[in-house]
Amino acid sequence: MSTRNLILATAGHVDHGKTALIKALTGIDTDRLPEEKKRGITIDLGFAHLALPGFSLGVIDVPGHEDFVRNMIAGVGSIDLALLVVAADDGWMPQAEEHLQILEYLAVRHGVVAITKCDQFDGEKVAADARERLRGSSLGQAPIVFTSARDSLGTEQLRTALIEECRRIPEARDLAKPRLFVDRAFTIRGSGTVVTGTLTGGKLARGTSVLLQPQNLRARIRGLQSHNQPEEIAEPATRVALNLAEVRVEEIPRGTIVTAESLAKTSRAIDLLVRRSARLAATTPPLKSSAIVQVHYGSSRRAARIDLLDRSELLPGEGAIARLRFATPVFCFVGDRLILRDSSLRLTTAGGLILDPDAAGKKFRSVAQGEFLRRRAEAPDDLANLVCTQLRRDQTAPRAGLLLKSNFSREEIDAALAELVRQNTIFRGREFVADAGWWQLLLVRAAEAIDAAHETAPQVSGLELTQLRAHLRIRAAGLFDELVAGLCENRFAREGNAIRRRDHRPSLPAQLRGAAEKIRAALAARPLDPPARKELMTDAASREAFRFLFANGEIVALNDDVALSSAAFAKMRTEVAQILGRRGGATASELRQSLGTTRRVLIPLLEYFDRIGLTKREGDRRVLRERAAAAK
């Protein structure tokens, strides 16, 4: 049986025995700071490893004191299950309640409750009270175990309960989108910069390049460890230490995310669904729009201004769509969860579910963004809903970048796209996907533009592609190529840099027919010595008629000055080929005399023949190119 990786974090009030319980389970004292030893309380995050049959648990021991809630949240941002500790002497205390609310905001649905100090106090009453307080919460069905770290009472029962709970947790998914949430960064002599954190979403391998976000710094993984063992590859849902090259420890604050280079986009604004727990006291102050809040995301903490979409304040038990605006960039995924705290009140005030991780530049109160956010909030974990809402708002997106910053793999997204195509909900091209309704409307608008061009300028073979693209206001070249390909699959054809209906044949409009006849007559009257092109194109109508005759092969333009009728050109081409074939070669003067034309016409004509590969110049003579090649 393979071993599964999971992350466990403690929770509970200060001095309720969390650290002692972890030591009893793992043999590791997670209090590593001198001040923690001196004061006898956990101040910062501590780490251990717990091996259970079938499971390898990375353990994060969090502080329980209200002064260090920020550190507690940094430890539980990416966990699979919680060990909620309640002491038999104190019972349910304020930080147990706050920690429970934090776990609920983060959607932690698996856990075990440990009643500690049961060697000295009767834990039955405390357990009953805890069960009642947990009722209706995300840990409402969590098993309760009576323990004592002093004499190992209940340790085996706790291990058994943890194993059973671990079996209920879905296996960690490898999305090929690794994110390591850094909680420590330090320097080791001889090794350099080291960071530790919880890895989710994908693997990290030694020797690969990574990106540090939101700083947008590149680094290389020189080495890595998981649970103090050197590894070549770190798996998701593990505690990992990375030895990073090309970056200094001063550049890596707690909260940095180590991720793949492809995941490069940050934003200064995110839109989210904010919910306030109904467990908050009714006297808790409202969360007001435009307030400054402390945002705890992953292992990071930073200030932001919150704006509520359709109300001025939020009371306990209520939810609303909101925007967070940051002074510096943030890096997060749709579907991620975060915590909002009020520093002045020292209160965890709300939790948030991210709906749009790249909201900067989008008008928060626009109709399109409002509909987008409301639809996402209705089913935030539904992949098809995420795809459809984005395409309804944006109309189109590159396939490779669609929901790149989400907790879904490329394979899952492609499968959802295939199903939506089958339902005729979206259009899927080679490089782009689009909302099906918008795509069909775009095809209709393109067809209307081409038809209008045929009607207003029937003498032109088709509508210039640059004009069509400008008319449709399509910026992405790849998307426009998809559109043209779609048109060409259905009654349209591309000709060079233009597109036309397949059954369209250029014809002169009535207002140009007279000008065309004058040009034809002028060229027919002097076929071997025609008027200069400027004499043929004296006004707008004659210029347009000339372009039509040229495009349809009635005129051959030798250069900017000389043009021949196609009949005269064909006759002169045949005669030149015959003369050179008989003589083996001839000078320009000899050809001019034989053809009965002028030097003004002959020289451009011969240069034209050279360009199209009929003739080749050798000194002052012209020879047939085929004969010249054969002679070699």
Written description of the protein model:
- This protein is an alpha+beta fold and 632 residues long.
- 34% of the residues lie in helices and 29% in strands.
Structural class: alpha+beta
Helix content: 25-40%
Strand content: 25-35%
Distance separating the two termini: 77 Å
> Main β-sheet: number of strands, strand sense, barrel status?
6 strands, mixed
Shape: elongated
Number of strands: 34
| Tally of helical runs | 19
The rounded Rg comes to: 38 Å
| Unreliable parts | none
Spatial strand sequence of the major β-sheet: 2-3-1-4-5-6
pLDDT averaged residue by residue: 92
Structure described in brief:
The protein contains 19 helices and 34 strands.
Properties at a glance:
six-stranded mixed β-sheet; single chain; elongated; 632 residues; alpha+beta
Write the layout of secondary structure elements.
Elements: E1 4-12, H1 18-26, H2 34-39, E2 46-52, E3 55-61, H3 69-76, E4 81-87, H4 94-105, E5 111-116, H5 124-134, E6 144-146, H6 155-167, E7 179-188, E8 192-200, E9 204-205, E10 209-213, E11 217-226, E12 229-231, E13 233-234, E14 238-245, E15 257-259, E16 267-275, E17 287-288, E18 292-297, E19 300-308, E20 313-314, E21 319-330, E22 337-342, E23 347-356, H7 367-378, H8 383-394, E24 396-398, H9 410-422, E25 426-428, E26 432-435, H10 436-456, E27 463-464, H11 465-472, H12 477-488, E28 492-495, E29 498-501, H13 510-525, H14 533-536, H15 540-551, E30 555-557, E31 563-565, H16 566-583, E32 586-587, H17 588-595, H18 599-612, E33 615-618, E34 621-624, H19 625-631
Parallel strand pairs: 1-3, 1-4, 4-5, 5-6
Antiparallel strand pairs: 2-3, 7-8, 7-15, 8-14, 9-13, 10-11, 10-15, 11-12, 11-14, 16-21, 16-23, 17-20, 18-19, 18-22, 19-21, 22-23, 24-26, 25-26, 27-29, 28-29, 30-31, 32-34, 33-34
